[in-house]
Specification:
Helix 9 packs across helix 14. The protein is mainly α and about 400 residues long. It is about 60% helix and about 5% strand. Strand 5 and strand 6 form a beta hairpin. The protein is globular. It has 16 helices and six strands. The strands form two sheets. A three-stranded mixed sheet has the order 1-6-5. A three-stranded antiparallel sheet has the order 3-2-4.
């Protein structure tokens, strides 16, 4: 409906303003990193403008597509996406000589399936948006203003773009784990490109890492279609939560952190973890609705005595923090490389384990790379809340780390 399309435009302008307002004075290190990354930069503003043009066109179309078989649209799209991923694995094995086959024929099959999904991408996006709106409505979650007045209108409207999101360059000092800079890079990058950037940036005396993103809170939200339906719907809601929280005390303080106006790692961790909790809970609801048989038959998490990845990562993080607190930077880096090799020997391949890796992944308190108690406190807050809506209202009002601790009984 037109009112939703209008708010799409309003939200885009607000987000664009937030991005522009974050451009402060750059020091020499920032300039040099920008120069190194320049050939690979993802031009966010151009992407937003291009996407906005499509939104404006849709605003003048009558009707809505909510009467279509949304579940079938989603299932079909991700079934083909899984086939593409499997063919790409096969193609890599054939090219390496591990399997016999014709690379050209396999590539042709990949291209044919990709063309098919390109034609159905918009329908799949709209289907996920509808499922997310319905699931949020069932939980009584409408908009950030609903905490104070009864306004049962969805805002910001759930809007996503399925595809391969940009990469991100994360930079941390070597003597501590802290995310001091990040830049969006092109989605189309190979490992050689990543390592070229990292090697040049590391020469500046910092720790760097180029990682792929599963999602990005642009508008529409950029959501990866490479990791299956469950991941996609959880990520769609996670990124929407960042847009929702933007209009709350927690979100405004997160904006101040992201723009370096008032850095606050705890607020960043709270914001990301709240988005994770809501995204996973709503995503599970949608997944069970779309794939009830698969959801019911999924095996429970193993509690065996085998290799414990989460414990190894947390122990590694604690040990690295200890090295760095003592000023033993080289020892910390040697230890991280030894741990990376140890993880690989046990079936967990991490391309690069360094300070930047922990700075990026440690922002999520429920991540195994985080040693923050914030994740446990937010989980406790969720458990003592009568509903997901009650939890979200409480979390969205948080302005300091101390307020979170005070909310937990």
């Amino acid at each position: 409906m037109f009112k939703f399309r209008f708010w799409h435009i309003v939200l885009f302008l607000l987000v664009l303003l937030a991005v522009v307002s974050g451009c402060g004075l750059e020091n020499n290190l920032d300039d040099r990193i920008e120069e190194i990354a320049a050939p690979y930069r993802f031009e966010m503003a151009k992407w937003e403008i291009k996407t906005l043009a499509g939104e404006i066109g849709e605003a003048f179309r009558w009707g809505d597509n909510e009467e279509t078989d949304t579940i079938k649209e989603i299932v079909d799209y991700f079934t083909v996406a899984a086939e593409i991923r499997q063919l790409e694995v096969t193609l890599g094995a054939v090219r390496s000589g591990a399997l016999e086959g014709d690379p050209a024929l396999i590539q042709q099959e990949i291209d044919e399936r990709q063309d098919r999904n390109d034609e159905h991408r918009e329908a799949a996006e709209e289907a996920i948006e509808l499922q997310a709106r319905q699931a949020l409505t069932e939980q009584g979650i409408y908009n950030p203003l609903d905490r104070d007045i009864e306004l049962k209108v969805g805002f910001p409207p759930v809007k996503i773009y399925l595809g391969n999101p940009p990469h991100i360059l994360i930079v941390s000092p070597r003597d501590r784990i802290e995310r001091i800079m990040d830049l969006e890079l092109l989605p189309e990058m190979n490992i050689d490109d990543m390592e070229t950037i990292e090697n040049e940036v590391d020469k500046l005396g910092v720790s760097s890492l180029v990682e792929g993103l599963g999602g990005l809170s642009t508008y529409p939200s950029y959501v990866s279609d490479q990791f299956g339906l469950k991941f996609a719907v959880q990520t769609a809601v996670h990124e929407w939560m960042h847009q929702y929280l933007f209009f709350t005390p927690l979100g405004m303080r997160y904006l101040l952190d992201q723009t370096n106006i008032r850095p606050d790692d705890d607020i960043a961790t709270i914001n990301e973890t709240v988005a994770d909790i809501v995204g996973q809970e709503i995503g599970d609801i949608i997944y069970k609705k779309c794939f009830p048989e698969e959801a019911e038959s999924a095996p429970p998490p193993s509690n065996g005595t085998g290799f414990d990845f989460n414990k190894v990562m947390r122990d590694t993080r604690r040990a690295v923090d200890g090295y760095l607190e003592r000023g033993e930077i080289e020892q910390a880096e040697v230890f991280m490389e030894q741990q990376r090799q140890y993880l690989a020997e046990n079936g967990y391949y991490i391309r690069k384990l360094n300070q930047a890796y922990f700075a990026f992944h440690g922002a999520y308190a429920d991540s195994p790379t985080s040693i923050s108690p914030i994740g446990q406190e937010l989980q406790a807050l969720r458990e003592q809340s009568g509903s997901l809506k009650e939890f979200l209202d409480s979390a969205a009002a948080i302005k300091t780390r101390e307020e979170l601790a005070g909310l937990v009984e």
